[in-house]
Amino acid sequence: MNKRNSSARFEIIRTAVAVAIAMLVAVVIIFSVSEEPVNALYNFIIGPFTSLRRIGNVIEMACPFIFTALAVCVMFQANQFSMIAEGSFFFGALCAAVAAIKLPEITGLSPIIALLIGTVAGGILGAIPGFFKAKWKTDEFVISLMLNYVALYFSLYLMNLLIRDASAGSKVSEKFQDSFQLINLIPGTRVHMGVILSILMIIIVYVFLYHNRWGYQLRMAGCNIKFAQYSGINTFAVILGSQIIGGCIAGLGGAVEMLGIYNRFQWTSLPNYGFDGITVAIIAKKSPKLVPIAALFLAYLRIGADIMSRSSDVPSEVISVIQSLVIVLIAANSFLSGFRHRMLVKESMKKPMVEGGNEA
User: Fold this and answer.
1) pLDDT, tens only, 130-189
2) Separation of alpha carbons 105 and 63, rounded Å
3) Under CATH, what is the fold of the domain 58-313?
4) Do 92 and 119 form a contact (C-beta atoms < 8 A)?
5) In angstroms, what CA-CA distances link 293 with 13, 53, 102, 171?
6) Per-residue b/e over 260-292, b at no fewer than 16 CB within 10 Å?
7) Does the reported pTM lie above 0.85?
8) Residue 158 and residue 146: Cα distance in Å, rounded?
């Protein structure tokens, strides 16, 4: 238990140091390129908190990050480096949009039905790379990455075929029926019921991974698949199941985003929320309970960078520098390894002294 606590403390410290270094680099860049760096920094750091609408923008942006990050966490815990969250998110959003336009309205149940349809659609897409990996040991990274673009163009085909608004001047769907849209929670913002659903999903995924037999099998297979096989775990089901579950969570996230923010389907390219989810999952160290913190942090940076770019002469692309540097430092196993070694030595030296004191 002490070793686990020490490792957790070290990861928190390492992440905090990585974020601090990235922010320091961002400050240096801003002072180097801006003629009004103080104003730019103010808008970047304080800007997201200057109005209720901007705070709502941070929460609203964090919501899809949470869903896709949870999907990635489940797959990465099983050691499945699948990128299918992006495609499942898009396909789930499209299927929810079709439901919101074509299905008859049922009072109180309409959004639930559309969300379930989006969830199942995402899971079906996630099953494809999962089956290929489990059955034929294909590389799930390559399969899922290519499948994202299959999902994109197939979804656009379905949109054109089933729900496109021919009278609109752009490639958009017909408007959703009102009963299918998610309830707004905070007037003056676009924060919707999907935020509550994302919190529930965090709890569900955490309980599944750490307080459930199937979650234990999934994590065991992720640590050592050979040992899991020798222990009697059905690794075929784990590999397939982890990607189906991840696809379902991402598909639900896409449905939530579509029904909570938009009144018609208008995406013509991948929104990149799945790839953002990978960033959030890496910052959260694949832990569901840290996902909301990492998601809010990334959303805060994005909104701050957008405000800064509109209020000063610093482009919003500076956020890419921060994001990339944080990922590199967190992913680097040798970063602060000396500090970790000293922590472990210090802990091990304290332990015999405590045991000796108890015996006395």
Assistant:
1) 999 999 999 999 999 999 999 999 999 999 999 999 998 889 999 999 999 999 999 999
2) 26
3) ABC transporter involved in vitamin B12 uptake, BtuC (1.10.3470)
4) yes
5) 15, 20, 37, 36
6) bbbbbbebeebbebbbbbbbbbbbbbbbbebbb
7) yes
8) 19
Judge contact between 99 and 117, C-beta under 8 A: yes
Buried b (16+ CB within 10 A) or exposed e, 186-221: eeebbbbbbbebbeebbeebbebbeeeeebebbbbb
Neighbouring residues of 317: CB distance < 8 A, sequence distance ≥ 6: none
- Contact by Cβ (8 Å): 304, 42: no
- Residues 235 and 128: their CA atoms lie apart, in Å, by 16
> What are residue 213's phi and psi, to 5 degrees?
-65, -40
Cα–Cα distance between 161 and 102 in angstroms, integer? Answer: 13
- The segments of the chain whose pLDDT lies below 70 read 1-8, 331-360
Give dist(CA 244, CA 241) in Å, integer.
Answer: 5
- Please count the CA atoms within 13 angstroms of the CA of 101 that sit on its side-chain side: 21
Cα Rg, the chain, nearest whole Å: 22
Residue pointed to by tokens 């899991």: 228
Q: How far apart are CA 97 and CA 207, in angstroms?
A: 30
Q: How far apart are CA 155 and CA 125, in angstroms?
A: 12
Are 30 and 314 spatial neighbours (Cβ–Cβ below 8 Å)?
A: yes
- 114 class by beta-carbon count within 10 Å (0-12 exposed, 13-18 middle, 19+ buried): buried
DSSP-based three-state secondary structure for 164: strand
